[in-house]
Specification:
The protein is of the alpha/beta class. The chain has two domains: 5-175, Rossmann fold, CATH 3.40.50; 188-280, Pantoate--beta-alanine Ligase, Chain: A,domain 2 (2-Layer Sandwich), CATH 3.30.1300.10. 39% of the residues lie in helices and 18% in strands. The chain has eleven helices and nine strands. A six-stranded parallel sheet has the order 1-4-3-2-5-6, with helices on both faces. Strands 7-8-9 form a three-stranded antiparallel sheet. α2 links the parallel β2 (26-31) and β3. Mean pLDDT is 94; it is low at 288-296. Bound molecules: adenosine monophosphate. Residues 31-32, 38-39, 41-42, 148-149, 151-152, 175, 177-178, 185-188 line the site of adenosine monophosphate.
Length: 296
């Protein structure tokens, strides 16, 4: 069965109103299309937990700080619909740019603090674009639950903060990152990697997982960070935007791991920007003792 593709808010509202009246729960999976197994895993989880599921496909111009990135972003709606068909989601919400941002549109949703660091520091306006479109998607779909990938961990935390602060009654669910066999996090941008860069790109995951393991064993982050950056550059990465150890909840920078610590990286390879993140296993973290004081 083909999934209905909705283009107008009136159509969407008619559908969601009927579902609500029937007492059915609604799950939403916001995407920018070019769907891969990472996106499909979110839709599968939504199907398992909600009566009705809407997958949204909208390449949101407001979250692109680089016009070239927006122009090159893959748009594959037909094959996206084919990939979604076996999941039997209830609707694809694929509004036009004008439907989403009609002439005169003047509102921005901006989350402070969490957006100052990591991708926020390197992509001005990006998270305003994300928070604005996700607010609209939550209100448009009237979703009870919304599914986001941990692959974009900062985005997940920003969206959680936004829903909480604005009393939007949509529960934000974080889902594990789906990876290729060699560890590379699935991403629509991977399609733009040339073969050699594609092979080298998997080093990002290996570097992060090795660093997470070494941190768990008590290694010093400053030295580890330098070695990890060198390894990335030696493998073919052109630039490291950030390689940070941060707290999961508020994303504050850490100099040593603590419970809930996470590694975050953004780097460029072959003209493509890749991001990834991994938790630092907490259970076995060595208890750090104060340095021994030799004199009083
Ligand atoms: P995007 O289309 O890239 O904006 O992503 C839409 C949603 O899919 C976001 O919540 C992403 O975090 C999530 N996502 C993207 N890649 C993956 C992945 N490899 N594993 C799990 N979720 C992902």
């Amino acid at each position: 069965m083909t999934t209905p593709i909705l283009r107008s808010l009136t159509e969407l509202r008619t559908l969601t109103r009927a579902w609500r009246l029937a007492g059915q729960s609604i799950g939403v999976v916001p995407t920018m299309g070019a769907l891969h197994d990472g996106h499909l895993s979110l839709a599968e989880r939504a199907k398992a937990e909600c009566d009705r599921v809407i997958v949204t496909i909208f390449v949101n111009p407001k979250q692109f700080n680089n016009p070239d990135d927006l122009a090159k972003y893959p748009r594959t709606e037909e094959s996206d619909a084919v990939k979604l068909a076996p999941l039997a989601v209830d609707a694809i919400w694929a509004p036009s740019g004008d439907q989403m941002y009609p002439a005169g549109f003047a509102t921005t949703v901006s989350v402070a603090g969490l957006t100052d660091v990591l991708c926020g520091a390197h992509r001005p306006g990006h998270f305003d674009g994300v928070a604005t479109v996700v607010t609209k998607l939550f209100l448009q779909t009237q979703a009870d639950r919304a599914y986001f990938g941990e692959k974009d961990f900062q985005q997940l935390q920003v969206v959680r903060r936004m829903a909480l602060d604005l009393d939007i009654p949509t529960h934000v669910v974080g889902c594990a990152t789906v990876r290729e066999a060699d560890g590379l996090a699935m991403s629509s941008r991977n399609l733009r990697l040339q073969p050699q860069a594609r092979v080298a790109a998997a080093t990002l995951y290996r570097v992060l997982s090795d660093a997470a393991g070494q941190l768990e064993q008590g290694a010093d982050w400053t030295a580890l960070r330098e070695a990890a950056a060198d390894r990335l550059l030696a493998t073919g990465f052109d630039e490291i935007e950030y390689l940070d150890l941060r707290a999961t909840d508020d994303l504050r920078a850490l100099t040593a791991p603590e419970a809930g610590a996470r590694l975050f990286a953004a780097c460029w390879i072959g003209g493509v920007r890749l991001i990834d993140n991994l938790p630092v296993p907490g259970q076995a973290l060595r208890k750090r003792t104060d340095p021994v004081r030799l004199s009083a």
